[in-house]
Amino acid sequence: MRKKHTSREYESELKDLKSQLATMAYDVKAMIHDSMNALQKKDIKLAEEVIERDFYINQIELEIDEFCLIILARRQPLAKDLRFITIALKMVTDLERMGDMTVSIARRVIKLQKMPPVKIPDKILLMAKSVQEMLQLAIESLLESDATKADQVLEQDDSVDELYHQNFRYLIKLMAQNENLIEPLVHLQSVAKWLERLGDHCTNLAEFVVFKVSGENVRHVSRAK
Amino acid sequence: MKQFEIQNLSAWYHQNQVLSGVSLDITLKTATAIIGPSGCGKSTFIRCLNRMHELSEGARLEGKIILDGEDLHGQQIDPVMLRRRVGMVFQKPNPFPHWSILDNAVSGLKLTHRLKHSDKFSIAESALRKAALWNEVKDRLNQPGVSLSGGQQQRLCIARALAVEPEVILMDEPCSALDPIATARIEDLIHDLKKNYTIIIVTHSMQQAARVSDQTAFLLHGILVEMSDTNQLFTSPKDSRTEDYITGKFG
Ligand SMILES: Nc1ncnc2c1ncn2[C@@H]1O[C@H](COP(=O)(O)OP(=O)(O)O)[C@@H](O)[C@H]1O
Ligand SMILES: [Mg+2]
């Protein structure tokens, strides 16, 4: 059985922090889902709603930041607890940036509305699906302190990068063939870029979890492919 | 360079074994913190290092302690001289109550040989300076030691240990009776002292261990669970029992 802190209040503070982080991450995941949904269905209302939700993500970032500072000041955490607080402070920064990226995607949806229609390439939809899976895995790895799930996120990021490059070549080809579609296709390329970046942030989240669980810093270590 | 090599040290009070096969090295001119729950054998451990343990009733030990390459229990070691080489500062400041600050500072010498007043003064001044107390007491050297604040008394006890020119200073929870400012002064002093002395400090405060030491040893029920670099031990301890203890967890 997992050991608990002698101080029940401290135990519940750390638990709260973990669930606040997970909630923020689930909110971001929903924003990725909805911004992509808006793109596919050309749903301007949904895109605008995603843009509005970013305000809450920013608020939550500030709240979690402050909560971390209070725990640091009052509890002076050590070992795994200390590692947890330091990664929480970093995770909220990544999650907040991820929120911004879904806003960028939503803005492209609004712009695309006024342009000649283009089909969303399958590779972009695959990237979006993959990034959401990565975020789900990162959240689960945090909640379950499971480094193997975090490792899966790191692996999956390679396939997102590969999809991005394939899609990039595909869009270039389309542009060369259809000059009148260049502008909307450039916007789609931006969406792909944001998805690729979202994948990178999921990787960061997973690396933080590995650090929390094992004390091992796997950032900036080139992984064998 | 090793100050101490401790090999398979076990200690008893009568039938009660309180240390079991502790082996560790202490590097010269570093600060080592000993942490662990009450009764785990921290005080007994450091009292073995200057052979104070053997003064307790029913005390016994096994294993080997090597100081500067020399067996601590060898024939040529005089325990009284040893306790000057390996000085000790206790939890409660314990200056001699009726003695002046000056006499307290040199009391370690006074017991063993007669001193000229000028020598006494210069030895006291040097020790009080090293203990970062001189500026606060230089105008009141003839007042009783116990007229000082708790933190000053503790630094006076450190000066007393320093006056006999030790190599090692053992400290047994030296700040547990002090307020945060007095504690910070002692911790600052430890930082200065380890340039010239080897410091071994028993502390109840994990934060204090983290602040002052280079190495930290965690004892549990008389067993050495882990000795690591302090930075490592408090961020990523190797042993899950250390992790549980320093994060305040129970079973
Ligand atoms: N002089 C003594 N005689 C008998 N038992 C002692 C004596 N000193 C300590 N003990 C016992 O030895 C164990 C370890 O004590 P100690 O070394 O003082 O632990 P710590 O300093 O870690 O609190 C305790 O169970 C304590 O009761
Ligand atoms: Mg003790």
Topology readout:
The complex is a heterodimer of chains A (225) and B (251).
Chain A: E1 4-5, H1 8-41, H2 44-75, H3 79-112, H4 122-144, H5 147-177, H6 182-214
Chain B: E1 2-13, E2 16-27, E3 31-35, H1 42-49, E4 59-67, E5 70-71, H2 79-85, E6 86-89, H3 101-105, H4 107-110, H5 117-130, H6 134-137, H7 150-163, E7 168-172, H8 180-193, E8 198-202, H9 206-212, E9 215-220, E10 223-229, H10 230-235, H11 240-246, E11 249-250
Parallel strand pairs in B: 3-8, 3-9, 6-7, 7-8
Antiparallel strand pairs in B: 1-2, 1-4, 4-5, 9-10
Helix pairs in contact in B: 5-7, 7-8
The structure holds adenosine-5'-diphosphate and magnesium ion (MG).
Magnesium ion binds next to helix 1 of chain B.
Question: What would you note in describing this structure?
Answer:
Helices cover 83% and strands 1% of the residues of chain A. By secondary structure, chain A is an all-alpha fold. Chain A has one domain (4-214): Up-down Bundle (Methane Monooxygenase Hydroxylase, Chain G, domain 1), CATH 1.20.58. The model of chain A has no long low-confidence stretch (mean pLDDT 95). Chain B is α/β, with parallel strands linked by helices and 251 residues long. Chain B has one domain (2-246): P-loop containing nucleotide triphosphate hydrolases (Rossmann fold). Chain B is 36% helix and 27% strand. Chain B is built from eleven helices and eleven strands. Chain B has helices spanning 42-49, 79-85, 101-105, 107-110, 117-130, 134-137, 150-163, 180-193, 206-212, 230-235, 240-246; strands spanning 2-13, 16-27, 31-35, 59-67, 70-71, 86-89, 168-172, 198-202, 215-220, 223-229, 249-250. A six-stranded mixed β-sheet of chain B has the order 6-7-8-3-9-10, with helices on both faces. A four-stranded antiparallel β-sheet of chain B has the order 2-1-4-5, with helices on one face. The termini of chain B are far apart. The chains are: A mainly alpha (225), B alpha/beta (251). Chain A binds chain B through residues 3-7, 10, 76-83, 215, and chain B through 206-207, 210, 234-237, 242-244, 246-251. Bound molecules: adenosine-5'-diphosphate and magnesium ion.
